[in-house]
Amino acid sequence: MTLIAVLAGDGIGPEVTAEARRILEAVRPGLDYQEAPVGGAGYLASGHPLPEATLDLAKRSDAVLFGAIGDPRFEKLERALRPEAALLSLRSELGLFANIRPATIFPALASESTLKPEVVDGLDIVIVRELTGDVYFGEKGQRTNAAGLREGHDLMRYDESEIRRIATVGFEMAKRRKGKLCSVDKANVLETSQVWRDVVTSMAADYPDVTLTHMYVDNAAMQMVRAPTQFDVIVTGNLFGDILSDQASMCAGSIGMLPSASLRAWSGDTGMYEPIHGSAPDIAGQGKANPCAAILSAAMLVRHSLDDEASAQRIEAAVAAALDTGARTADLGGNLSTREMGDVVMRAL
Amino acid sequence: MTLIAVLAGDGIGPEVTAEARRILEAVRPGLDYQEAPVGGAGYLASGHPLPEATLDLAKRSDAVLFGAIGDPRFEKLERALRPEAALLSLRSELGLFANIRPATIFPALASESTLKPEVVDGLDIVIVRELTGDVYFGEKGQRTNAAGLREGHDLMRYDESEIRRIATVGFEMAKRRKGKLCSVDKANVLETSQVWRDVVTSMAADYPDVTLTHMYVDNAAMQMVRAPTQFDVIVTGNLFGDILSDQASMCAGSIGMLPSASLRAWSGDTGMYEPIHGSAPDIAGQGKANPCAAILSAAMLVRHSLDDEASAQRIEAAVAAALDTGARTADLGGNLSTREMGDVVMRAL
Ligand SMILES: CC(C)[C@H](C(=O)O)[C@@H](O)C(=O)O
Ligand SMILES: CC(C)[C@H](C(=O)O)[C@@H](O)C(=O)O
Question: Which part of the chain is the Isopropylmalate dehydrogenase-like domain (chains A, B) (predicted)?
Answer without folding.
Answer: 3-345
